[in-house]
Amino acid sequence: MRHAIALAAALSIGAGAACAATRDLAPVVLPQAAVPGKAVQPFVKVDAPVVALVHVRVIDGSGAPARADQTLLIEHGRITAVGADGLPIPADAKRIDLSGRTVLPGLVGMHDHLFYIARPNLGEQDGKLHSDPPLIVPEMAFTAPRLYLAMGVTTLRTTGSVEPYTDLNLKHDIDQGKLPGPHMDVTGPYLEGANSPFIQMHPIRDPADAKETVAFWAKQGVTSFKAYMDITRAELQAAVDEAHRLGLKITGHLCAVTYREAAAIGIDDLEHGFFVNTEHDPGKAPDKCTESDGLATLHAMDPQGSDAKSLIQDLVAHHVAITSTLPVFEQMVPHHAPLRPQAMAALSPQANHDYMLLRAHTDALPPDQAQKRMVTFRHGMAMERAFAAAGGLLLAGPDPTGNGGVVPGFGDLREVELLVEEGFTPVQAIRIASYNGALYLGLQDRIGSIAAGKDADLVVVKGDPSQHIDDIEHVETVFKDGVGYDSQALLQSVQGRYGEY
Is there a contact between 179 and 211 (Cβ–Cβ < 8 Å)? Predict the structure, then answer.
């Protein structure tokens, strides 16, 4: 109990220490709501000027305990009141009895891609897995937005794009009510250096190219940037400086650049928790990626040791946020990731085949390798928990890539469950996945928590996630701008298609 109270206080301090972007993103990320169009209407479950959710349990996203028997009023897309049952309800309100249900803030997914990684002709060859080059990254412009919205993600950051024009156009059509999907902070194309395994990425040539790339895509309308594995320190510095000049933030999945180097350069956020810090990887050379991409450093790091504490202190002092993406790393641990039938039903036949093949390969690892991966995973969890306790701003997102088993939306909910496994209470985990993301984006006055005056971006689930975190999976209705969407209808519309389009 003492640890839980201390951690709650630390979370509050860490969240308060975050810096909002110098540019106001609200007009772009959260534009005025449009009337749901023809392609969106089949998924609309609740659409009334005034809505009263009664007899509902509220987890408000602040980290406070859940409150039972509440009434929540929505008027013209905004929350106007939240309080105990008995709150005055306008006569013209549409009443919805949510007995046995819980409402929580719409999730703010901070590592939510709109693509799928395909491995051509994946199969077994001479007892080993093999696919033909190159890796292909098809855009999931149809399925991904529906999956995110269906599972309660009402705002997301794309955190690296392979088709930035597609992402920008998709955002435009969602904002116009032409297509279903979440609010979007569109990240520019990966700021990647030479030797990338992804043929669809532009290799940054030098610092001038990094600066020009950031300037060009900011002009096209993207609102964030992501540096990638092979970028050099000089190129990263140029990208960070230009993004900050434009009032925008930049995050990174790094490898050639270490966490301490990136913090000194001025990066705003680091992706994948502490799994990709290469500082102590064997053979690490300046501006060069390593074979383990940070896993060797994390495996050898004592989360309670002086090196870990020094690193965390350095990141907190530089106001660097950390994005936890536990679901994608869970997949590397044999027998750890659950197989959720609804998520698997979303996969195309080819995607399902490939995932099950890769999963079986992981599950068959020798005991010593399996143990090493579990130790590394546990170290990553402990480092994230220590970072939050030290006052760092911890964000959340699933990263639906890897072996294909992390499905948009479903992965976001799994991330919350894994944060609880990591040591946070359910209400703390929900705060990390909602309010903290809003705070990082500078949108905390509009989204991320449930309070009068905020946008009505809400998730209704059956059960009580404050007591049983897996109840968060039982999503029934997702409100975005006060319009309630049918989760199951959205899921049915993409069944068997994710991985295809």
Answer: no
Please report, rounded to a whole number, the percentage of residues in the chain having pLDDT higher than 90: 94
pLDDT above 90: residue 292: yes
Question: What would the two tokens of residue 470 be?
Answer: 């897996």
Please, what's the b/e burial string for 13-39 (b: 16 or more CB within 10 A of its CB; e: otherwise)? ebbeebeebeeebeebbbeebeebeee
Sheet with 107-109: strands ordered across: 107-109, 153-157, 183-185
Q: What residues have CB less than 8 Å from 478, skipping those under 6 apart?
A: 106, 149, 150, 151, 152, 154, 458, 459, 460, 484, 485, 487
Q: CA dist 462 to 44, 151, 213, 437, 468, Å?
A: 19, 13, 46, 24, 11
- Rounded to 5°, the CA angle 209-210-214 comes to 115
pTM > 0.85: yes or no: yes
Alpha-helical runs (H) found in 56-206:
143-150, 164-175
- 195 vs 359: CA distance, rounded Å: 27
The Cα 424–Cα 430 span in angstroms is: 9
Q: Of 99, 110, 104, whose CA–CA distance to 459 is shortest?
A: 104
- Give me the residue label for tokens 């955190």: 159
Q: What does the pLDDT look like over 166-184, one tens digit per residue?
A: 999 999 999 999 999 999 9
